[in-house]
């Protein structure tokens, strides 16, 4: 790049804007670049047809806890529109209700008056058959709840044992009008995420808006939580360590390292055991702890009594409801 500025002995500093451009360049895949050609941001809503709008809204509201929001119609449809959109010429006006489905895409529910289209649900293997999957924190509890509401559960929850979706549990159920929908849960993450930490899959569980309590902003309490975190990583007794893990970490805690992502206390416990077995004489010690609301920064070192700082680094914690929810690990490069 040519410039009119005179040369200087000072080292040229890369600007924040330039650094951001570099990060974007290296993180964007060919698929992302292709997608940006039409500027798609994400899925806004999913549309479904129902035989009775009021009953469907009652189901989404009373059973699933979703909030009905906007409504359009009834809207008369002219012959040209029906022909263009493959609607039976004798079908009547359409009424549309948008349902806010929590932390994710909305559901747009259609009811056609005097519907002359097919009243049969497509079979699972029919072209055009589809379903909506809802993420739940506890799939077994969710299944029992749906059963208590009289809904038909199609089988029992199944947990994928291996492969990209290892750790994911799912089960199908039927709505009161016969549509097939799904419950899905992976509180400890999926196999794909652990094998490809650089490619982060969007998940409603990772983007849910949580309400923080006043205790989450207590600097003294958060400092103690982080200090107990270090005690866990130094604890050699498995029983004591696991008990402390459940006290200090959220059950779905996520630890993000440069090389991998660990999800859940079990994953973290396995990593600690492996680290201790490889370095039996090493211990973690804190250099400093800094708090900012519910975020804590810990500077640490790891080594033996003779060499206490063989490895050093910084951990960044996000604390919610008195427990560590997120842990980001930065290891100093030597």
Automatic annotation (TrEMBL):
InterPro entries: Glyas_Bleomycin-R_OHBP_Dase, Glyas_Fos-R_dOase_dom, MMCE/EMCE_epimerase, NTF2-like_dom_sf, SnoaL-like, VOC_core. The keyword Cell cycle does not apply. One of its GO terms (biological process) is L-methylmalonyl-CoA metabolic process. Keywords: Dioxygenase, Metal-binding, Oxidoreductase. Pfam families: Glyoxalase (PF00903), SnoaL_2 (PF12680). The keyword DNA damage does not apply. Residues 42-186 form the VOC domain. GO terms for molecular function: dioxygenase activity; metal ion binding; methylmalonyl-CoA epimerase activity. This is Catechol 2,3-dioxygenase. It comes from Flavobacterium resistens.
